[in-house]
Amino acid sequence: MNAVPVVVVPIHNALEALDACLAALDRTLPPGSPVLLADDASTDPRIEPMARGWCERSALAARYVRREHNLGFPANCNAAFAETGEADVVLLNSDTVVTTGWRDQLVRCAASDPRIATITPWSNNAEICSWPRFCEDNPAPEFPDAIAEAAAGLAPTYPELPTAVGFCMYLRRAALRQIGDFDARTFGRGYGEENDFCLRAAAMGWRNVLCDTAYVVHHGGASFAPLDLAPGGENLARLLARWPDYNERVARFIMADPLAPRRIALEQRLQSLAAAGPQRDLFG
Questions:
Q1: Which pLDDT belongs to residue 280?
Q2: By C-alpha distance, which of 130, 129, 133 is closest to 119?
Q3: Which of 103, 128, 145 is nearest to 3 (CA)?
Q4: Average pLDDT over residues 219-236
Q5: What average pLDDT does the segment 145-159 reach?
Q6: Nearest C-alpha neighbor of 214 from the set 129, 280, 137
Q7: Structure pTM?
Q8: Where is the Glycosyltransferase 2-like domain (predicted)?
């Protein structure tokens, strides 16, 4: 495993969200960290000069590629996988804001077990990985670094997930080599491709886990909303045609809620840190 994964940011418009995402990468990653901005033929003419300018100014080893035609999210990601050599990758949506130490926590998780294929951190808006309220779109916190600090102070358990959540998804290169990349032919412009990848990985003995010591803010919908693409629909039908028990797997996970002790531990750790410092509203 490459100890330093390449952070891949798929882009399609969403200028303001992208600007915040890139600023957070500059703030949280060490100089020289590899970053690839993969622009899927954005129609906003401001995207390319902004992204190229950021790459030139940033202390990170950042580069920008623009697709000649819109490929759709899965095919854009697949092209980025091919453009990042043999490194592990972190797919990071442009509507995220990363926090202090986030990448190191994901790398630490990956190093704990060579059979981990995908890793997802906690987030305010991450379905089964949402915190503090499970399976809800929680508001973005005012002090996300405080939550990240609390998470980083926990003893990790890296619990199993039925699927990763694609807003921030670490992918091990060895898993990509063995099972292939996203199924762009089936999932077209996007939604469902990461679930299919995780199910294929699990079927071949790989693990999909939560990094319970990392936290990343996710605003949600910045790139797909203008395209009238929404979760479910035809792509969910395609996913279920291939994996008929997918809904049952996720439903059983939600009913059992094995992450509840970890959510409670994070909340208790956060409140302990808050009590030791200045009183403030950590949730915005």
A1: 47
A2: 129
A3: 103
A4: 59
A5: 97
A6: 129
A7: 0.93
A8: 7-179
**Which residue type does 163 have?**
T
The DSSP code sequence of 8-20 is EEEE-S-HHHHHH
- For residue 257, what are the β-bridge partners? none
Mean pLDDT across 211-218? 98
* Contact of 139 with 200, CB cutoff 8 Å: no
**Residue 98: how many other CB atoms lie within 10 Å:** 26
Q: Where exactly are the structural domains of the chain?
A: 6-276
Q: Which amino acid is at 49?
A: P
Query: Which structure tokens are listed for 185?
Result: 């032919």
Task: For 38, list phi and psi in degrees, rounded to 5.
Answer: -110, 100
Domain 6-276 sits in CATH 3.90.550.10:
yes
C-alpha angle 258-262-264 in degrees, rounded to nearest 5? 110
Mean pLDDT of the chain: 92
Find tokens 């704990």 and name the residue. Answer: 112
Reading the block at residue 45, the tokens are 């003419």
Please choose, from the candidates 157, 148, 164, the residue with its C-alpha nearest in 3D space to the C-alpha of residue 103: 148
